[in-house]
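Deliverable D5.2: sample structural annotation.
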Amino acid sequence: MIIFKPHEALSIINYYLPKNPIIVEAGAFNGNDTCKMAQLWPQGFIHAFEPVPELFSDLKRNTQNYNNVACHAYALSKKNGSAHFYVAEKPTKPGIPSQAGSLHAPKERLHYSTIQFPHTITVPTITLNSWAQQQKVKQVDFLWLDVQGHELAVLQASKQLLATVRAIFTEVGFFENYVEQPTYTELKNWLEQHGFTLVGRDFKNMAQWFFGNLLFVRT
């Protein structure tokens, strides 16, 4: 098991991917990680998903100089259509969406963070399989999932495309940070049942914080 610092994640992931990976990044926020991936894999291609309109505008602006990035204004989910999205804000920046928004209502994370969820919006949703069919994407090498408790739902609705995936970097909560958020064990067991092995994480133990990130690779 590799224990790495958050800023080391991409260099670790790079070991498991080809030089020209097709990447799906769900929960792209303002494109900060998107730009890092575009630079690391100039021969690859990143499909970045962000459903919050203000953040999607930031994502588009910040990635506009990369010809290996496409931005999609959807929330990846378990169904096609629309859903309520709980918009997150930092108390020091009211009215400005932050990175912790979710399709799930906040729960335990309210005890660990000052982030607030003042309102909901309606966002378009799509499954990874449906999107891939529409876009004629036949293969995805790497999934980067940062969707605040909705990771397992995205995976469960993506079994067809999942068969092509080599590596998955996914956030996981150590508590029910959001309503009906799957546990660490549920997420790990499901991925192991579908051919993946946990090879790394960016935390030493689950007593340090209320969430972390896991790296799975196909075995």
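Annotation notes: The CA atoms of residues 110 and 116 lie 8 Å apart. The chain has a mean pLDDT of 96.
The annotation will be released with the project's public dataset once the embargo ends.
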